[in-house]
Write a structure and sequence with these properties.
The protein has 26 helices and 5 strands. With 615 residues, it is mainly α. It has 2 domains: 363 residues, no CATH class; 210 residues, Rossmann fold (3-Layer(aba) Sandwich), CATH 3.40.50. β1, α21 and β2 form a beta-alpha-beta unit. The longest helix is centred in the middle third of the chain and has 32 residues.
Length: 615
């Protein structure tokens, strides 16, 4: 390190880059089917984090002001007050508005506060029921886990950088290349993409590359030779390059889905380098950075952390209420996120500074000040109930999110297996021989004769009610089943002669039905097995936590238009208007909704089959 005093300076343009990152992430969360690659904003945030930690640490060290204790206190003050505020207000609000939804939130919140939520989510996602329960207002906090983990290890890395002196930049670059290379290698080996996306060791390359830039900039910012070089020869080129690099960022935002192998085998690494170059252009040209920070952009950038924290609590609430499907839903979500971000930042500042915002004697300030005070008092009440809920969460070491639902579905799975065994013993041939007229055939079908049902945990949970209406139906349902496994079941039933003339399918909750392999091939194989002679009834999907719900339902609607033997049992519009019929995960159906689900199946079959038989 150069042992001369250096002063940290405000770097114009960083708020503009933060605004770009949070805008990409926000639109990805709100409109995931349009801004399919908006998650790349995370890479930009990580680059900025690495840069600022390295730059400020290097400047403090060269000014003989670096202190590990002060370093951690500063980061704790920045990260935790807004985080705790948002968590407690959210849990408290849900206590009143969506009771029971966060009954398993205790361990998740602890993982967030201790900074390992990304690894906690990976561990929970190994189990299907935990994965469903993990669809929570805190799902996005995995990113904060990566940030906190890097903040913790940075002093150790910085200590190595101090020891290596002029080789410190190369150390961070080499470590970054190792991390980036490991992601590419593991992707090519077929490692689960969740491990690649959430793993700190995979994502830390962005922080390390940003850190290398931060150390370099701290050393060279006052070097007149470098300053003259960039001022005279390179600044125009850098501005043009910045504009050009926006193009691949936009292309990735609209085209690069998170399930693509290319993203992990080279795409994310390339995007990280693009963001590093964009950051380089900003830090080397103060005038350019200043031009980027128009007031609205600067405001978004300065509130980016609060905007990030409030996103999923707002989106999750809208999804549970069904408001996200409204035409104006996304706009209302964005507006509410911005209002909550401004309010929470002002509230925390007031708490620490003992000073209310909106000072002044005019009516506008008077109204804003007392509205702010009222909202803050209400939030304190929410916080109290939120704390009670968190403390009351189940901390049994054997307990996992979704445990009660899992036990209930396993009970119904056992009952279904017993019922189907009894069904297999009946003389189906004799029943078929007795049916002669169209009326008799329809009546038999509506009792379930010749009707086969293939489904996932939604059908498992509703099977007693289905069999009550259609006691002769053959149901093969299993929790966590996706369309690929559905194809294998249909193939097996066909070989055994158990695939009836009428097939009811309830698949699509546990993965997409098109675009992504192996699901797209599984869907086509299933359709091929079912053929064109059987009557296929497919139940539309309602699982608001997933990114594929809308895509799956649109695809099913297209099949109903293009295939004469393909019919929809439209559960989606029913579920979205009756969330009281759903379990807290907003996907599985509770005891009040099961009869309605079964009746919808029966009534749809009655309508379609009656029309076909001219009855």
């Amino acid at each position: 390190m150069i042992e001369v005093e250096r002063r940290k300076r405000y770097i114009c343009g960083l708020d503009a880059l933060r605004a770009l990152a949070i805008t990409l992430i926000t639109f990805f969360h709100i409109l995931p089917n349009t801004f399919v690659g908006g998650y790349i904003g995370v890479c930009l945030f990580l680059v900025i984090t690495g840069f600022l930690l390295a730059y400020s640490s290097a400047c403090d060290y060269m000014s003989e002001k670096f202190n590990t204790r002060n370093y951690f206190i500063k980061r704790l003050k920045r990260l935790y007050p807004p985080l705790i505020f948002v968590i407690l207000v959210t849990v408290g609000l849900y206590h009143f508005a969506l009771p029971g939804v966060l009954e398993d939130s205790g361990k998740e919140i602890i993982s967030i506060l201790l900074g390992f939520n990304n690894w906690w989510q990976l561990a929970m996602n190994a189990d299907y029921f935990a994965r469903v329960a993990n669809a929570s207002p805190f799902t996005h906090m995995w990113f904060l886990g990566v940030e906190i983990e890097y903040v913790v290890i940075w002093p150790l890395l910085f200590g190595l950088c101090v020891l290596l002196k002029r080789w410190s930049v190369y150390l961070l670059i080499i470590l970054g290349l190792i991390s980036a290379g490991a992601m590419g290698f593991m992707a090519m080996q077929g490692v689960d993409i969740s491990r690649l996306y959430y793993g700190t060791d995979m994502r830390i390359c962005a922080c390390l590359f940003g850190g290398a830039m931060g150390l370099w900039f701290a050393k060279t910012q006052n070097d007149s030779a470098n300053e003259n070089f960039f001022q005279i020869k390179s600044k125009d080129t850098l501005r043009i390059l910045f504009g050009v690099l926006i193009v691949p960022v936009l292309i990735a935002t609209f085209l690069l889905r998170g399930q693509y192998l290319f993203l992990y085998s080279g795409g994310m690494q390339l995007l990280t380098l693009i963001f590093c170059v964009m950051l380089f252009a900003v830090i080397m040209d103060e005038q350019f950075g200043n031009k980027l920070e128009i007031p609205v952009v600067k405001w978004i950038g300065s509130h980016s952390y609060e905007i990030f924290l409030w996103q999923y609590p707002v989106l999750f609430f809208f999804q549970r209420r069904g408001w996200s499907e409204l035409t104006y839903g996304p706009a209302l979500e964005i507006l509410l996120i911005l209002i909550l971000s401004a309010w929470s930042k002002a509230a925390i500042a007031s708490i620490f500074k003992f000073k209310l915002p909106f000072n002044g004697d005019n009516i506008k300030n008077y109204f804003l000040r007392y509205t702010f005070v009222f909202a803050t008092i209400i939030s304190a009440i929410f916080m109290y109930f939120g704390m009670q809920d968190v403390l009351a969460s189940d901390f049994d070491p054997d307990h996992k999110p979704g445990y009660k639902l899992k036990m209930e579905l396993e009970r119904k799975q056992a009952e279904l297996a017993k019922a189907q065994a009894e069904h297999a013993e009946r003389a189906a041939a004799a029943e078929a021989e007795r049916i002669r007229t169209a009326q008799e055939k329809l009546a038999a079908q509506l009792r379930g004769v010749g009707v086969t049902m293939i489904g996932d945990s939604i059908m498992v949970g509703t099977s007693p009610d289905i069999l009550e209406l259609m006691p002769e139906a053959y149901i093969d349902a299993l929790s966590s089943r996706n369309v690929c496994e559905g194809f294998e079941v249909a193939q097996k039933l066909q070989a055994e002669g158990k695939l009836g003339d009428v097939v009811v399918v309830a698949l699509g909750t546990n993965g997409p039905l098109l675009d992504y392999e192996p699901f797209a091939s599984g869907m086509q194989n299933l359709l091929n097995v079912l053929g064109t002679e059987r009557q296929i009834f497919w139940i539309t999907v309602y699982c608001s936590y997933s990114q594929w719900m809308a895509m799956n339902n649109e695809y099913l609607a297209e099949l109903a238009q293009t295939r004469p033997n393909f019919h929809l049992i439209d559960w989606y519009p029913v579920a979205i208007n009756h969330y009281e019929w759903l379990e807290p995960d907003n996907t599985h159906i509770n005891m009040y909704g099961c009869p309605h689900y079964a009746k919808l199946i029966h009534d749809t079959l009655t309508q379609v089959l009656s029309a076909q038989n001219n009855i």
